[in-house]
Amino acid sequence: MAKRMTDTDKYKKRFVRGLPGAYKLLWDYLYHDCNHAGIWHVDFEIAQIYLGADMPVDSKTALELFNADEERVIVLDEGRKWFIPKFLEFQYGQMNPRNRVHLSVLKALMVFIENPAVKPLLSPFLGAMQGAKDKDKDKDKDKEQEKEEREREKEKLNKEKEREREKKIGGSGGKLRLFPIPGKSCCKCRMPAVYKAVGEFNHYYCGEHMPAQVKEKYDA
Ligand SMILES: [Zn+2]
User: Fold this and answer.
1) pLDDT tens digits, 204-220
2) pLDDT grade, residue 172 (50/70/90)?
3) How far is CA 35 from the centre of its chain?
4) Distance 189 CA to ligand 1 centre (A)
5) Considering the entire predicted model, what is its pTM?
6) pLDDT class for 131, splitting at 50, 70, 90?
7) 59 versus 130: which is more confidently predicted?
8) Measured in angstroms, how far is the CA atom of residue 178 from the centroid of ligand 1?
């Protein structure tokens, strides 16, 4: 259930006072049954059920009465919808596109922007709405920049890792690097050993004395 504002002076107003009872009721009903954008989906059959059989109303008379001295109802969509501009003025006061509810109201009405009766109502907001949209775009831009920065950061990290790996294997495209084996020395020269002969018990070699085929592949 939506709660709406009501005007305590409503029934004192010349316009409402002058309406026949059934249309007074219909006018009040429209304020309750229209959507948040002041648009009523015209359905007199249902309206009649709610108003009661002793309050007969019809579309033609309603428009004549409601629009007698000013356009209180703007007929849209070939009569399928009625727009009540005063509803907006009354419920929301000064429309402000930065207000989320107001913005959704304005968007609901945008589809009728080509209607000569609606256009002048909306045009003051178009500029402000454009401004709000640009702001959104700026936000998107910020997000994109953030993403790019993250990508760059990631790339940097990857490159660092790559370099780290290259250092370990003695340079990209170069030979793999061997490191001194703790506590072991070459069996030929007693220099720190970097290579243990496969299958030979306790045969450690330094970079210089390791087998030729090992030297081909590794740096010490
Ligand atoms: Zn040696």
Assistant:
1) 999 999 989 888 888 87
2) very low
3) 24
4) 4
5) 0.57
6) low
7) 59
8) 14
Instruction: Please report how the helices 119-168 and 100-110 are oriented relative to each other, as an axis angle in degrees rounded to 10.
Output: 110
Q: What is the dihedral of CA 161, 165, 167, 168, to 10 degrees?
A: 140
Taking the C-alpha atoms of residue 220 and residue 56, their distance in angstroms, rounded to an integer, is: 104
Dihedral sign (CA 108, 114, 117, 121) = positive
Query: For residue 77, how far is its CA from the centre of ligand 1 (angstroms)?
Result: 97
Q: How far from each other are the two terminal CA atoms of the chain, in whole angstroms?
A: 81
Question: How far apart are the CA of 187 and the centre of ligand 1, in A?
Answer: 7
Which of 11-25, 108-122, 178-192 has the highest average model confidence (pLDDT)? 11-25
